[in-house]
Amino acid sequence: MRFIKPMFYLLFEAACDSLPNQPQETIFWRLHFTMGALFHTMQLSGNVDIGPKNLHADINAKSLINHIIPYITAGMKAR
Fold it and tell me: Helix 61-77 vs helix 24-44: angle between axes, to the nearest 10 degrees?
């Protein structure tokens, strides 16, 4: 927690600067959910067999980044 809290504040400030038309409370919650999704994704990286057996999800760092960046970007920009 010692490192996460200062990092969260820096990201919050950057997000507020980048999204001036969004209320700060909205940015706070979206960033909170984003951090949870990121931590969960990092934890999954190559360690867990997820999804239906007929879905051959490629779980590697590059694939995860390619999926999560558009997801996070859309969530932060949503109205």
Answer: 170
